[in-house]
Specification:
Layout: H1 2-10, H2 12-27, H3 36-41, H4 50-63, E1 79-80, E2 113-114, H5 120-133, H6 136-152, E3 167-170, E4 175-178, E5 184-185, H7 194-200, H8 202-215, E6 229-230, H9 243-260, H10 263-280, H11 296-310, H12 321-338, H13 377-391, H14 394-406, H15 420-437, H16 440-458, E7 473-474, H17 479-493
Antiparallel strand pairs: 1-7, 2-3, 3-4, 5-6
Amino acid sequence: MEKLLMHSKRRLKKGLVICLILAAYATRGVGADLDLKAIFREGTPSSPFINVVYRYADAMLQNGRDTYGPQKSGLFLSAFDRETLAPLTIQPPAPAGIRQENRPGPADGPLVGGNPQLDQNLLRLLYFLKEMSGQERYAQAADDELKWFLKNTQSPETGLLPWGEHLCWNVMSDEVACGLAEPLHEFARPWMLWGRCFELAPEESKRFALGLWNSHIADHNSGAFNPHADFYKGPAETSPESPRQAGFYIRTWAEAYAHTKDNTFLKAIGVLLTRLDAKCTSKTEQTKPEDTPQNACDILSLAIDCDGAARKVPPHTSGGHRTRLARFAESQDEIFCSLPHELASKRGFLMRCVPAAVKTDDLYTPLWDPKYGGNTTARVAMMCVSRYENTGNVKYRDLIIAAADAYMDSLPDDDIDAWPMTFGQAVSLELAAFRATARREYYTRAFKLGEIAVEKFFANTPLPRASLKTNHYESTTGADTLVLALAELHLTVLHITAVRSPANTIDR
């Protein structure tokens, strides 16, 4: 590592030259027209991470796409044999923190599913690599996946798509697959590629957004909703509501309104926001066991999506949607930042709003341990990065720095089956702290974590293992998040700050 760091220092002068070139373009007001291909071709030095990034992307383009079954869809498989670069013929043991029914494949067969939500950072990376390399094939592969998926897999009854937490597309039999007895639709993470989807398949994208309104919202007056909906039948009975899922719906509807100007989406936002406003705008102190404490991480995720949605709706509507969304996001910020997080002691972020008398260690985020339905400290910290970079709220900056400090001398214990996602988020967290403070130790730690991640997850194959204790590729655990972090680290190694890789903040 010391040699690599010394080599990086020797490249500082050349990296600064690149920065000056980029800055000159920016000051001329033509930043949107930067020719990244030319800039990166003109003597830009390499980094120890970019080859890993390209090998991963190239392997997925060459070996990781659906050329099987009756329909050669071009979808990326979400699980793979790392040694043969071929589809799995079995269901290997699940990584820690992953339920069998949430894996990309049928319940009783091999993991041969394609799930774009699980591969979203891969798609975002491919669009970025097109800009870096000038090679259209990267973006074309991403476009091909999105267009085929939207136009060929949508439920004719509900408009929902076979993706997310439980559903996928079986690339061998060309049909919807689910690990549950019933085909339930539920988001696995927010979907940040709606802009491209509406360009490639506008009618199908609109129909999906309407499907959320008609299939997940059980009562269009009260806004009562179910995080689960039957892929074919639509509305299910109401169940415990998830503010996190509600944020995903609101963001989708805001994007749909921006592209279609259909007032149905404004109505949907208003109805659900009214319901959330009544439930999520005060920090309650529960005192009885039957009380359900608020999930602090859901609060933060909801703030991110409401703020993002506010930027997509017009400033003046009869329902005052932009103002309501922005104010609601601020109320969630206030609740989250007021909680007694304990990052200095490495207990982590407080995960639930509970009275001080009942706080225990299991209410705090672990640094590395991936528990089902939980969050690591790095994952929550990257949500804080999103809020800080979008609001400038210094309370979030302080949380980012405290979380980055917690990872400065920490690695997973031998008994922890850590994920590539967590390593990727830890790398991006240290880089965010470096940007916020200009303190080199955060960059040095990001570099070291990147080296460790490459060694532990990639070895001599282009695809990372699903976890430290498994040996197959499975994007459920965030392989794409790790590779996106390595792309971000590559730019930082070259001291290029005028160009950013896609924000590594969507895992929540």
